[in-house]
Amino acid sequence: MSTRLWIPSIITENKSLKPYTTMKVGGEARYFAEVKTVEELKEVLLFKKRVNLPLFILGKGSNLILGEGNLEAIFVLNRIQFFSFDSDAVTVGSGVNVSYLAQKVSKMGLGGLEFFSGIPGTVGGCIVMNAGASKKETASALLEVTTLDEELKERTYSVDELEFGYRKSPFLKRDESIIFAKFRLFMDIEAEEKRHAILTHRLKTQPYTVPTAGCMFRNPSGHSAGQLIDSCGLKGLEVGGVRVSQKHANFFENVQNASAKNILDLVERVRYEVKKQTGIELELEVLPCFTTCTPIQQHPMGS
Asked: Within this chain, do residues 240 and 266 fall inside the same structural domain, yes or no?
């Protein structure tokens, strides 16, 4: 007679993921855990070894398209949140909301992180995708990253040891979970004013009142994906319950209980039209995750 698998108390089974994604699309996670400490994350990693399933870490749940149905993976909602200030730096938990981080430090008269304002992601997700805005990227403000590997060993990397690129980092392919990071700060009495200006601009130019995943496509070299889509007359194009935003064409809005298939159908329609009219091939910026997930994936923005 088989014995039922022992499941830690922080893990639940068959959990709907829709509420945990900004696009409000997603099926059921085979296993789901919300972790608030590194010790809880270690508990989940030990469980992962027993069930031998991929692990996917969610932050804010943006920049992500999840498929429907049963997702055979362990999904971890990262809520590791703490702050530790030095004279010219701050160390923060990977589950901290970066927009809140920007607000917190700027109100202290500290600059360097204003560009995070309005980005719907966590520290961990923004590092994984090297998220950016206002002509700055996460890596430009980063000093150190500390991770936890599958053997529960903590590793600390200086930013100089890591190779970052446009919307990518080494952590997209490493079986390591980011647990905290250290960012460079400097005195700037105008930091809060700058942050507020950035946030105001984002609210005016991007759709924040409907579910989206953030920017759908990467900006091709020398071009803006949103401007290309707009120039092809695709604003307002709708498939199923998802449409190209009238406010910013690189955002797809879930306006009527859209499915992952609706989103991908619209993605292909837009890519086809842009390629046909401009000769430029658009590449996804969002991460798709359907019936299974590859090893440990940190959800971007996650940013």
From this structure: yes
Judge whether residue 1 has pLDDT over 50.
no
Query: Higher confidence at residue 173 or residue 4?
Result: 173
Catalytic residue, candidates 30, 167, 195, 271: 167
215 is catalytic: yes
Residue 200 lies in a domain: no
- Which of 215, 232, 289, 293 is catalytic? The answer is 215
pLDDT score for 289: 63
Query: The tokens 């989206």 sit on which residue?
Result: 212
Determine, yes or no, domain membership for 204: no
Residue showing tokens 């924040």: 208
Residue 214, helix vs strand vs coil: coil
User: Pick from 80, 96, 118: which residue ends a domain?
Assistant: 80
Output 44 or 62, whichever has higher pLDDT.
44
Question: What separation in angstroms does the CA of 104 have from each of 5, 41, 92, 152?
Answer: 43, 26, 12, 31
Question: Does 153 share its domain with 173?
Answer: yes
**Domain end residue (candidates: 80, 108, 137):** 80
**Residue 293 counted as domain residue:** no
Closest Cα partner for 119 from 63, 187, 184, 177? 63
299 pLDDT above the threshold of 70:
no
Catalytic residue list contains 285:
yes
CATH number, domain of 40, equals 3.30.43.10
0.90 cut: is pTM over it? no
Please indicate, yes or no, whether residues 156 and 238 belong to a single structural domain of this protein. no
Catalytic residue selected from 126, 271, 285, 293: 285
**What does residue 158 show for φ and ψ, rounded to 5 degrees?**
-80, 155
Q: Mean pLDDT throughout 208-237?
A: 94
- The answer to whether residue 167 is catalytic is yes
Report, as an integer, the average pLDDT of 295-303. Answer: 34
